[in-house]
Design brief:
With 237 residues, this protein is α/β, with parallel strands linked by helices. It has one domain (3-234): Uracil-DNA glycosylase-like domain (Uracil-DNA Glycosylase, subunit E, 3-Layer(aba) Sandwich), CATH 3.40.470.10. It is 39% helix and 15% strand. It contains eight helices and seven strands. The protein has helices at 3-13, 19-31, 68-71, 79-90, 128-144, 156-168, 206-209, 216-234, and strands spanning 49-50, 56-60, 111-115, 150-154, 172-173, 184-189, 192-201. The chain has a seven-stranded mixed sheet with strand order 1-3-2-4-7-6-5, sandwiched between helices. A hairpin with a 2-residue loop joins β6 and β7. α1 packs antiparallel against α5 (128-144) and α5 (128-144) crosses α6 (156-168).
């Protein structure tokens, strides 16, 4: 891991910017869910996970109370992670399709997974002030990835946070990013020859996957498009 990302990880794990979220996560870790009562919960802010040289960044909503807040790794330990890591494996971004905990051998290639909020919020509904407190971490992560080419917003909140982070880094979108599954918007800035594409996806939450709002072919199409965008960036002028 690069020095800047490693330092960010330390700062995120130690963060106390939202005392109410720290108290909530600690209480969840203390009381636990019955099926996980023998496990030790992470109970702290969750840092990004993946390849420190990633060209693709996924921006989700927030850790799940009994998912990432339990395991300490993004999208690990709940149904959303089941969908996400299976899709990443099918696309060749992950070495295995299943996720269990931080010691399960999962390795990501060319992908970094992060979120708009690093602490599990009550009811999975972050407050605007909480998102603002966490936003500098996302900005710093994107800035630390010198080869960044594609940002995938998993859900509307993740997509909005990603778009704002790119804007504050000096990128200008060729057209206004609008949230819809598969929608994309390219951004450029004067000082950088590279183009970054923001790609939107429905979040792989139970609410979306159990109702058919998001299907596996729809999700696979997002990561195939991300791969295609990387290949376009590798083509000679």
């Amino acid at each position: 891991m690069s020095a800047s990302l490693a330092e960010l990880e330390r700062r995120i794990v130690a963060c106390e910017r939202c005392p109410e979220l720290r108290a909530y996560c600690a209480e969840v870790a203390r009381t636990k869910k019955r099926e996980y009562r023998e496990q030790s919960y992470w109970g702290r802010p969750v840092p990004a996970f993946g390849d420190p040289q990633a060209r693709v960044v996924l921006v989700g909503l927030a850790p799940g109370a009994h998912g990432s807040n339990r395991t300490g790794r993004m999208f690990t330990g709940d149904a959303s992670g089941v969908w996400l890591y299976r899709a990443l494996h099918r696309a060749g971004f992950a070495n295995v399709p299943t996720q269990v905990d931080r010691d399960d051998g999962m390795v990501l290639r060319d992908v970094l997974i992060t979120a708009a909020l690093r602490c599990a919020p009550p009811g999975n509904k972050p407050a605007p002030a909480q998102l603002r407190n966490c936003f500098p971490y996302l900005k710093a992560e994107l800035a630390a990835l010198g080869g960044l080419r594609v940002v995938v917003g998993l859900g509307a909140i993740g997509g909005r946070a990603a778009a704002q982070a790119l804007r504050e880094a000096g990128y200008r979108f060729e057209r206004r990013p609008l949230f819809a599954h598969g929608a994309e918007a390219a951004a450029t800035r004067d000082a950088a020859p590279r183009r970054i594409v923001l790609l939107h996806s429905y979040h792989p939450s139970r609410q979306n996957t159990n109702t058919g709002v998001l299907t596996e072919p729809m999700f696979d199409a997002i990561f195939e498009r991300a791969k295609g965008l990387l290949e376009e960036g590798e083509s000679p002028d």
